[in-house]
Amino acid sequence: MANKKTRKNGEGTLFKRSDGRWQASFVPENGKRLYFYGKTQAEALEKLRKAQQEDQKGLLATGPKQKLGDYLVEWLESTHKPAMVKPSTYIQYRTVIHRHLVPALGHVFIRKLTPQHIQVFYAQKVKEGLKPRTIALIHAALHSALENAVKWNLISRNVASLVSVPRAETYEIHPLTSDDLRHSAATILLTMGVHPKVVQELLGHSKIAMTMDTYSHLLPSMQKDAANKMDTAFRFGDETGGKDEVD
């Protein structure tokens, strides 16, 4: 019969409604009957079994149904007032909740919130040009709020733990060491034509060969510069005839 209620080995009540859907229900530890619906008998039964398993583990969400937006505001004002956390944390969380989370996800019932809801929301924020650092702050607020919702028995798990958060690019800055500075100074001095012997003494090299080997890549340009100077000197000599002027 379409409306006949049946029991599946103590799994609760299961029957087909007049609208064609299947309805399952059972009474958890708190004594308030819960109802589950499915297009098929198997779907309704699967939801029932999952709820019963969570009830046995003490993980079943039996608190009042709330929309995410209402819950986030309640959570913020009851657990994150400046007297409880740093004022800067309260201000940052309040900003991202009212500016981003409530407008986009506030209408979703907290028990119906899925990882997909959150992942699509983050992807949209990236598309809008929101910086990864801001998205990370949004995620921190949402994750903390949902973790608290688990404690309050509003949900059975924190779905924010199941999503990927855009990572901010980090740039590693290597501070200059004394060796870097000495090397740079030596390079500049040699290219300016300072004699390698002077550079050797400034660097503290025991032998000039060590200095020449270290900066051998500069030698071709130094040799070219020396050749140019010699060429200039010879030209000057040719122009004066190589003779001393006599009064």
How is the topology of this model organized?
Blueprint: E1 6-7, E2 13-16, E3 22-26, E4 34-38, H1 41-56, H2 68-79, H3 87-105, H4 115-127, H5 132-151, H6 178-191, H7 196-203, H8 208-214, H9 219-239
Antiparallel strand pairs: 1-2, 2-3, 3-4
CATH class of the largest domain: Mainly Alpha
Here the CATH topology of the largest domain equals DNA polymerase, domain 1
Structural class from helices and strands?
alpha+beta
Q: Can you list the strand order of the major beta sheet?
A: 1-2-3-4
Main sheet attributes: strand count, strand direction, barrel closure = 4 strands, antiparallel
Distance between the termini: 139 Å
CATH superfamily of the largest domain: Tyrosine recombinase, N-terminal domain
Total DSSP E strands: 4
Strand fraction: 5-15%
> Total number of helical segments?
9
Rg result: 38 Å
- CATH architectural group of the largest domain: Orthogonal Bundle
Helix proportion of residues, in percent? 40-55%
> Could you say which overall geometry the principal axes of the C-alpha atoms support?
elongated
Report low-confidence residues grouped into runs of 5 or more.
Answer: none
Overall mean pLDDT: 79
Tally of structural domains: 3
Helix and strand sequence: EEEEHHHHHHHHH
